[in-house]
Each structure stands twice: as C-alpha cells, then as structure tokens.
Design brief:
Keywords: Cytoplasm, Hydrolase, Nucleus, Tryptophan catabolism. Pfam families: Abhydrolase_3. This is KFA formamidase. One of its GO terms (molecular function) is arylformamidase activity. It is a single chain. By secondary structure, the protein is an alpha/beta fold. It has one domain: Alpha/Beta hydrolase fold, catalytic domain (Rossmann fold). Helices cover about 30% and strands about 20% of the residues. Helix 8 links the parallel strand 7 and strand 8. The longest helix has 18 residues. The two termini are about 25 Å apart.
Length: about 250
C-alpha cells in the first residue's frame, strides 16, 4: 500500500534499466518540489537475497519526497538466478548509473535492510576507479544487516545462494572494510538494529560498527527499542518514526 501511495503522489519514473538483466532496474520517486538539486536516498531491499523486489520498496518514499529528497529503489537479481558476486556488482553499477544519469542529485544516502544492508555495506567498500565515476556517498543507514556471511554457509539460507567459503569471505563487509578515505570521513554511517532482532543480527551490527569506526569511519550505532527485524524498516513509511527523522 505504501508503494502505491508513493506512486500516486509526485513524479515517479519506474523500471529504469541500469543494465540488461531482467531485474537491473530502478524506481525513482522524485521530490514533490524538485527545484534545482536534491539529495537521493537509495534503498536496497532485503529478503535474504532471494525474495522481495524493488516493487515493494516505495513505502519509504512519501515522508522523504515531501521533504525534497529523491528516493531510489534498486532492483537486483535475487537467488537462485543471482549469484552473490553478481548482486554486489549490480548494486554498485546501479549507483554509478544513477549519478551519471541524474546530474541534479547532490549527495547520495544509502539505505538497506537485512540482506539489503549487506549490499549497501559492500557498496561502501567499492573501488570506484573501475566504474569511471565516484558517487558522492554522504551517508549510509544500515538496518538489521548481515555483515559476515560465513555463519550463513551452513543454514537453509545458503540453499538458494549456493555460496562456498571463498564467495562468502570476499562478499563479507566485515572482511573488506577499507580505511576511510578523506571523502569517506565525511560519510556518516548509521548502523541500526532492533531490540527484538536475533542475537546474531545484534552481534554482527555491533562488531561491524566497531570495525568501521576503527578504520576511521564516522559511525553511530542505533539500538531501536520495541521493534523487531521487520517493523524496524516498515515504520519508515511513518513521518514521526525515529529512523525516518534521523
């Protein structure tokens, strides 16, 4: 319903291809009053890398577009079609495409939930030289994320992903933290976790936040009371919700 409401209000461009893949598409919800330049919140959906899509990702748009922010929902090839390496590459390419295509974007803010927070964290460790463009990433909101893929190897989640240890290691944000470049020092990372997230989610969020901070990144840890793994992100459709405000 939130996505439908977002599409009904304001100017929206749906299914913009950033590549040839079936799911390599973006939905862009433009600010209600897009005068001049505007910041963009890039939302990467969760679903254990195998379900959901960008089509359910518009719920966060209404409170933000009304404040002059563009919201971009990223699609990527979920498993079993998508391999973990592919998904990481797709999300990175979507960012490069976005900033080349829309010159009025000033400042990109990443937001990902669960598996999407993993992908957003992998974007933070991108070597942009091979993309020919360096997106101005000013912030990242990583919500109930997975930052170390190794514990997943022996769970049902890996049935569709089919990762071996090597794939899990090279795609674990915890293992590819880059020292904060001068530009990255200006990037604020918010690592958010729910009170009722599982102990593993809570542990990984804390450890990843600490590791980023140790590498010179600007990090805040936000532990949200009274929410679980799902409503921590669903409530972004609400104007008054603490994460929307932040």
């Amino acid at each position: 319903a939130g996505t439908q409401r977002a599409r009904a209000s304001g100017q929206t461009s749906l299914h913009i291809p950033y590549g040839d893949g079936e799911r390599e598409k973006l939905d862009v919800y433009f600010p209600t009053d897009p005068s001049g330049t505007f910041p963009a919140l890039v939302y990467i959906h969760g679903g254990y890398w195998q379900c959901l899509s960008k089509d359910e990702s518009g719920f966060a748009a209404p409170p933000l577009v009304s404040q002059g922010v563009a919201v971009v929902a990223v699609g990527y090839d979920t498993a079993p079609k998508g391999h973990m390496d592919t998904m990481v590459l797709q999300v990175r390419r979507s960012l490069a495409f976005l900033v080349e295509r829309y010159s009025r974007i000033r400042g990109v803010y990443l937001c990902g939930h669960s598996a999407g927070a993993h992908l957003a964290a992998m974007v933070l460790s991108t070597d942009w030289t091979e993309y020919g463009v360096v997106p101005d990433i000013k912030g990242a909101v990583l919500v109930s994320g997975v930052y170390d893929l190794e514990p997943i190897l022996h769970t049902y989640v890996n049935d569709a992903l089919n990762m071996n240890r090597e794939v899990a290691q090279r795609n674990s944000p915890m293992l590819c933290i880059t020292p904060a470049a001068p530009a990255a020092a200006a990037c604020e990372v918010l690592v958010a976790v729910a009170q009722h997230d599982s102990p593993e989610f809570r542990r990984q969020s804390q450890e990843y936040g600490q590791a980023l901070r140790a590498a010179g990144w600007s990090v805040s840890l936000l532990d949200l009371a009274g929410v679980d793994h799902f409503d921590i992100i669903e409530k972004l459709s609400e104007e008054s919700y603490v994460l929307t405000q932040v």
